[in-house]
Specification:
- With about 200 residues, the chain is α/β, with parallel strands linked by helices.
- The protein folds into two domains: about 60 residues, no CATH class; about 120 residues, UDP N-Acetylglucosamine Acyltransferase, domain 1, CATH 2.160.10.
- The protein is about 25% helix and about 25% strand.
- The protein has four helices and 16 strands.
- Strand 15 and strand 16 form a beta hairpin.
- The chain is globular.
């Protein structure tokens, strides 16, 4: 089992790697607990029925943390969830590396009626080093570019270029060429990204 994702998630909390520190963090930090069980399930899911305890643990820790983040959602290394209450992530959304999510964030599906009246459903893709503030909603087939910041309460329904700041409802770009806002970034190799 590869523990690099868990190590990166611990780094986002300024905690050095180690089994004892990981267990301590799991005991005291409810927002780390459900990330840990997410990682454990995703590492064990190919084991068939043996993965069920990890899936059950993830469902329990998610409910206790008051978040809705499916164990099947692709999530890159170094996820930081601050406060977490009311976080909702659609199972088909994609979250990159060193992403920060706050309470009340929604990464949800969005429908459009295409040519001929055909319903098209899309899901957000959050690239690396994105910061999403409290109660922001990102809906539909949108891509949030690397290093962007989505301000609290913003409603985003169209793609955002890299290093942009978005605010308002509907969300509009209020600044470009922003620096990424990643507190305690996990030092990640330039390996191919498994989430995109």
């Amino acid at each position: 089992m590869d523990f690099s994702s868990i190590t990166a998630d611990m780094a986002r909390r300024s905690v050095k790697p180690g089994l004892g520190r990981c267990l301590h963090l799991a005991l005291i930090d409810r927002t780390f607990r459900f990330i840990l069980t997410l990682r454990l399930y995703q590492a064990a899911r190919h084991l068939g029925p043996l993965a069920m305890p990890a899936l059950l643990a993830h469902r329990i820790t998610s409910k206790l943390a008051m978040v809705d983040l499916s164990a099947k959602t692709p999530v890159g290394e170094g996820l930081a969830v601050n406060h977490g209450f009311g976080l909702v992530v659609h199972p088909l959304a994609v979250i990159g590396r060193n992403v920060t999510l706050f309470q009340g964030v929604t990464l949800g599906s969005g429908d459009r009626i295409g040519p001929g009246g055909v319903r098209e459903t899309g899901f957000p893709v959050i690239e690396d080093e994105v910061w999403i503030g409290p109660y922001a909603m990102i809906l539909g087939d949108v891509r949030i570019g690397q290093g962007s910041r989505i301000m609290g309460g913003a409603v985003v329904t169209s793609s955002v270029p890299a290093h942009s700041m978005v605010a308002g409802n509907p969300g509009v770009i209020v600044r470009t060429d922003c620096l990424a806002d990643v507190l305690y970034p996990a030092d990640l190799p330039d390996a191919p990204r498994s989430c995109f």
